Amino acid sequence: MFNQIKDFAKEWEEELKLTEKVMEALTDESLSREVVFGRRTLGDIAWHLVLSPHYMTGLGLVFDGPEGGNQVPESASVIAKEYAKVSHALLDAVVTQWDNDKLLESQDMMGQSWKNGATLRFTVMHQAHHRGQMTVLMRQAGLRIPEVYGQTYDSWIDAGMEPLK
Ligand code: NI
Fold it and tell me: Does 48 carry a binding-site annotation?
């Protein structure tokens, strides 16, 4: 739950930078990597993270959604570009259209009454959850994964150290 717009802004800005790094590490070929046969792909999950900030327009925030709507692009660079746009647009919308009082107002979310500050917290956590799914699929696809909350196998090797198990 966020009680202050500035707290959300600071955290979302940090989180969107981490997500941008992950998005920028995607390749076109990697997008078809599936969680299990016939289920969501890496591209589906990445695009879900592009679409999800825009769900906040259902709570009255006004900003543009990604180009292409629900259709997952075949280009990793398009996904990364659209993510950067929409994640910054959400940030701008919250900072310019809501105030601290607005965070305490409740609205319907998935059939429940949630304070707007709680919905923003969910948005941050939801992104971290799917970003974690992405990095596993990216590793399985043979990609180098950027550091998110700490060092990766590759950065330990680069540092001349024994990677942690
Ligand atoms: Ni989701």
Answer: yes
